[in-house]
Amino acid sequence: MNLLENIREGLRSIAGNRLRTVLTSLIIAIGITSLVGILTAIDGIQNSVDSSFAGLGANTFNISVRQEFGRFGGRATNVNKPIDYRQAISFKRRFPYGATISIATTVSGTAQVKYGSKKTNPNIRVIGIDDTYLTVKGYKLQSGRNFSTNDLNKSLNVAIIGNELVSTLFPKNTNPLNREIRVLGSQYKIIGTLDKKGSLTGAGDDRILLVPLDNGRALAGARTLSFEITASATDLANQEIAMEEARGVMRLIRRDPLGKPDSFEIERADALAKNVGQITGYLRIGGFGIGFITLLGAAIALMNIMLVSVTERTREIGIRKSLGATPKRIREQFLIEAIVICIMGGIGGIVLGLGIGNIIALVISQGRGGFVVPWAWMGLGIIVCVGVGLFSGIYPAYKASRLDPIEALRYE
């Protein structure tokens, strides 16, 4: 009996026990689904993160007040003073690297926007911006225009709204441009709407309302605002130098004492994406561990089924040995059966895992991620299937090959 004939015999045996084969393959499919599904979902989320930060550019960095809390009067308070308007404008004038610099401030993070009888939840961020904010932050206009010099200089009551506000306040196919909305007790005319941006952190980059910078300052009234500076350097190769220069300029403006830490922090725009990449790396390890444990249980179940199969086919094994089949060929037959069953289950598990993983990624990324086909994880799934088949089939195959042909023929 040669190897090819042994393969045919193994396949005939699988075809003759279809129900058992389907149930056994289903066990393996569940394990592979968990492995490939989790890893596919993580890849999809990572792709969405990468695409979210792609528009910012690797040469962009942010300057904001350092969050360092101390206790004053029995409550925690930031010990560093906020970056005020004068400091932000001074930095923009004094920074020597010719970068595109945007200044913005969050006026409110819990505003409610109204249009007629419709209103949003009180979770809208109202941000005062300048005319470079959209470009530097990677926002794209869906319709309308950016703030003009006239809008900024005269602090006009005009606004650019996020995608979520459009869908919440206005009926479908309604053009929101030039419509009047109310926020924080003031009336604004919409001059632009933003493309959907999405947010993995739940911060809601689509739940924003942008107003001219000085208009936002007026909205805040007597409240103290902290301004954020975003700079887009012209040359990526000199970005570290530009960041250090920005640090020196900002320390002078903020009058930070020599030998004391910065009262502000500078962070590259792609730093968060890198941090998320590290987190997803740990998630991959965790996902692989969960999938491995599931597959281990499936392998034990398959081994048990193969042992039962050896017992059921004892007489058949005796006949084969009496006709000249060697222990090697008997082992090959049972190993082939185990591997084929695992591969069948693995293919089904990969298809399911691919679909489930992409659905999870799309839900978490709010539909921004594309369809991911992780060829590496799919290849790993097939290799794992073969490994599980070998692990599960080797002992039953060895047991079958050790049967005494005379005793096997007597088995009823």
UniProtKB/TrEMBL annotation:
<protein>
    <submittedName>
        <fullName>ABC transporter permease</fullName>
    </submittedName>
</protein>
<feature type="transmembrane region" description="Helical">
    <location>
        <begin position="288"/>
        <end position="311"/>
    </location>
</feature>
<dbReference type="Pfam" id="PF02687">
    <property type="entry name" value="FtsX"/>
</dbReference>
<feature type="transmembrane region" description="Helical">
    <location>
        <begin position="376"/>
        <end position="398"/>
    </location>
</feature>
<feature type="domain" description="ABC3 transporter permease C-terminal">
    <location>
        <begin position="290"/>
        <end position="405"/>
    </location>
</feature>
<dbReference type="InterPro" id="IPR050250">
    <property type="entry name" value="Macrolide_Exporter_MacB"/>
</dbReference>
<dbReference type="InterPro" id="IPR025857">
    <property type="entry name" value="MacB_PCD"/>
</dbReference>
<keyword id="KW-1003">Cell membrane</keyword>
<feature type="transmembrane region" description="Helical">
    <location>
        <begin position="338"/>
        <end position="364"/>
    </location>
</feature>
<dbReference type="InterPro" id="IPR003838">
    <property type="entry name" value="ABC3_permease_C"/>
</dbReference>
<keyword id="KW-1133">Transmembrane helix</keyword>
<comment type="similarity">
    <text>Belongs to the ABC-4 integral membrane protein family.</text>
</comment>
<feature type="domain" description="MacB-like periplasmic core">
    <location>
        <begin position="21"/>
        <end position="247"/>
    </location>
</feature>
<keyword id="KW-0812">Transmembrane</keyword>
<keyword id="KW-0472">Membrane</keyword>
<feature type="transmembrane region" description="Helical">
    <location>
        <begin position="21"/>
        <end position="42"/>
    </location>
</feature>
<dbReference type="Pfam" id="PF12704">
    <property type="entry name" value="MacB_PCD"/>
</dbReference>
